[in-house]
């Protein structure tokens, strides 16, 4: 799906994702664009998002991170130098089963949690990393909240702060 000057490719590998939003690809693209509006990439980008299941994410997590368990979202930044055309940011992969479980545990609408994880994964591709320390985690959370506000999604950390 092409949005403005950005190329946002969404691959739905698990049909259960289709029930999350009426126009799932546009929903995901809007979440990517919200993150890009908060942290402008400095020109057109290309990003790939894969909506899959826990088994696929667990395999990727084991292979690339040495963690033999599923997780909600994985980001794979492109490490190649930028040539002409849109800058390839990388890939974001989301696990339906984990997303569904977390959404229920946190009493959050599934669509809100999906938007949050798409924004989170996109920010990772833009160079933000909450695992580098408290200051970077706080900064990344603030960016997420600002991007989600653009989508009408409430602060996902609001209840956690109390």
Task: Spell out the blueprint of helices and strands.
Elements: E1 2-3, E2 6-12, H1 24-38, E3 45-52, H2 54-65, E4 73-77, E5 87-95, H3 96-105, H4 110-125, H5 134-150
Parallel strand pairs: 2-3, 3-5
Antiparallel strand pairs: 1-2, 4-5
Describe this structure in words.
There is one protein chain. It contains 5 helices and 5 strands. The longest helix has 17 residues, at 134-150. The protein has helices at residues 24-38, 54-65, 96-105, 110-125, 134-150; strands at 2-3, 6-12, 45-52, 73-77, 87-95. It has one domain (2-150): Metalloproteases ("zincins"), catalytic domain (Collagenase (Catalytic Domain)), CATH 3.40.390.30. The chain is α/β, with parallel strands linked by helices and 162 residues long. The radius of gyration is 15 Å and the shape is globular. Helix 1 crosses helix 4, helix 1 crosses helix 5 (134-150) and helix 4 (110-125) packs across helix 5 (134-150).
Instruction: Give the terminus-to-terminus CA distance.
Output: 39 Å
The overall average pLDDT, rounded, is 89
Give the ordered list of helices and strands: EEHEHEEHHH
- The residue fraction in helices comes out at 40-55%
Strand order of the largest sheet: 1-2-3-5-4
Number of domains: 1
- In the CATH hierarchy, the third-tier topology is known as Collagenase (Catalytic Domain)
- Number of H/I helices: 5
Our estimate of the beta-strand percent is: 15-25%
* Structural class designation: alpha/beta
Shape: globular
At the first level of CATH, the class is Alpha Beta
Quaternary structure of the protein: single chain
The CATH homologous superfamily: Metalloproteases ("zincins"), catalytic domain
Radius of gyration: 15 Å
Weakly predicted, low-confidence segments: none
Number of strands: 5
- Architecture in CATH? 3-Layer(aba) Sandwich
């Amino acid at each position: 799906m092409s949005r403005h000057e950005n190329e946002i490719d969404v691959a739905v590998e698990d049909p259960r994702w289709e029930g999350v939003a009426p126009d799932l690809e546009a929903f995901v693209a809007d979440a990517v664009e919200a993150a890009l509006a908060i942290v402008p990439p400095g020109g057109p980008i290309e990003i790939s998002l894969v909506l899959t299941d826990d088994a696929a994410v667990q395999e990727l997590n084991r292979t690339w991170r040495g963690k033999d368990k599923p997780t909600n979202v994985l980001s794979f930044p492109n490490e190649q130098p930028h040539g002409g055309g849109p800058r390839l940011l990388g890939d974001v992969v989301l696990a339906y089963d984990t997303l569904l479980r977390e959404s229920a545990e946190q009493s959050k609408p599934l669509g809100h949690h999906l938007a949050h994880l798409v924004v989170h994964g996109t920010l990772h591709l833009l160079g933000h990393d909450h695992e580098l320390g408290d200051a970077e985690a706080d900064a990344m959370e603030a960016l997420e909240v600002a991007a989600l506000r653009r989508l009408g999604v409430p602060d996902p950390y609001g209840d956690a702060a109390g």
